[in-house]
Design brief:
Helix content: 25-40%
Order of helices and strands: EHEHEHEHEHEHEHHHEEEEEEHHHE
CATH architecture of the largest domain: 2-Layer Sandwich
Shape: globular
Strand order of the largest sheet: 13-12-11-7-10-9-8-14
Strand content: 15-25%
Radius of gyration: 20 Å
Length: 360
């Protein structure tokens, strides 16, 4: 299967390794910074792969069947629509887009062209997360009561200096949209997906050089009667502390933790079907960074979906749901009121100027 990568920045090594691990035919890579392509090509033995600074030229000449989009977030939608128009299946790094309208346009275009969209929420493939999901689907939790997602990370000025688009409303959003959306996706997915209402606060406490937030707190009321708590920040001193996901049901408690929900720290169920010590020892991983090992199985699933003519495990609708929850948090915090879902016509640019002096 012919594969191309658009965007050769911080996350691109995970995509390159996933493509190689799955035996894809790497026909092209694209970045507006040629040196970024050369550096990745040298590191991963891709010197023979053709390199482009114009992705439209690459699409026309290479005709890839699968394209991964790993650019700045604000460009995801436009590039995805061009890839879809060219007949390509796409894997889109999180978030799928920065507005509901753009997410809807991607989903609609893919359906019309008969191609597939995969939202790159790779933590769904963590061994720990998959085991919790299995217990959920088997009904072992019983009635869901509440869940909690905590993302307690650190991002300093040097991180934002690497790429000026980070922390801007036009191209990124704040910590919730960039760093925290993976765990926000997991919480919504585990707790039943459908949401009635969101109440939230966001603030900018330690990053005055950004446009967007570095702290978000939210309470989510799910349609099935359960609740969710979200705490996301990039202000933790002096480095990343943890990313944790709690699921509480009438008959079970589970906690995924570690750098990216990659280990199971708590496992207690009334049915006693498995030994908690065995579960913790078996379904944990120790990835080298916060991106984890999920890209390779996500790619494998997308390749199989293309071959079998089915939707991928994490489809465009899943990407839209994660985006929608973050935007609902932004909207609730900005308007100082509960926000009902579904959201219409909402995007990050709606909150431009939010943290300018006197506008909080």
């Amino acid at each position: 299967m012919k594969y191309a990568l658009i965007g050769c920045g911080r996350i691109s090594p995970n995509h390159i390794e996933a493509a190689k691990n799955n035996g894809l035919e790497f026909v092209g890579m694209c970045d507006i910074v040629y040196e970024a392509m050369e550096e990745k090509a040298g590191k991963f033995g891709l010197d023979a792969v053709r390199k482009y600074t114009d992705y439209k030229e690459m699409l026309q000449k290479e005709k890839p069947e699968l394209v991964a989009i790993a650019t700045e977030s604000g460009k995801h939608a436009a590039i995805a629509l061009d890839c879809i128009e060219a007949g390509c299946n796409v894997i889109i790094e999180k978030p799928i887009a920065l507005s509901i309208d753009d997410a809807d346009a991607i989903i609609k275009a893919a359906k019309e062209k008969g191609v597939l969209v995969c939202a790159n929420h790779q933590n769904r493939f963590n061994k720990s997360v998959q085991y919790i999901r299995k217990a959920l689907e088997e009904g072992r939790f019983g009635k869901l009561l509440h869940g909690a997602a905590h993302i307690r990370w650190n991002r300093g000025k040097s991180y934002y200096d690497q790429a000026p688009w980070r922390g801007t409303w036009a191209q990124d959003g704040g910590c919730l949209m960039n760093q925290c959306i993976h765990n926000i996706d997991l919480l919504r997915w585990m707790m039943g997906d459908e949401i009635d209402e969101v109440m939230a606060y966001t603030d900018q406490l330690a990053h005055p050089y950004l446009e967007a937030e570095d702290l978000g707190m939210a309470l989510v009321k799910f349609s099935n009667g359960s609740y969710g708590l979200i705490e996301g920040t990039t202000n933790v001193y002096p480095k990343n502390l943890e990313e944790t996901l709690y699921i509480f049901g009438e008959n079970g408690t589970a906690k995924a933790a570690g750098t990216s929900d990659n280990i199971i720290e708590e496992w207690n169920f009334a049915d006693n079907l498995d030994d908690p010590a065995h579960v913790k020892a078996t379904y944990g991983e120790n990835p080298p960074n916060v991106y984890g090992y999920g890209h390779t199985p996500l790619y494998a699933d997308m390749i199989d979906a293309i071959k079998m003519g089915r939707q991928p495990y994490v489809d465009g609708e899943a990407g839209k749901r994660a985006l929608e929850l973050v935007l609902a948090i932004y909207k609730s915090a900005a308007e100082h009121r509960p926000v009902k879902l579904p959201l219409d016509h909402c995007g990050t640019l709606d909150f431009a100027g939010r943290f300018e002096k006197g506008k909080r």
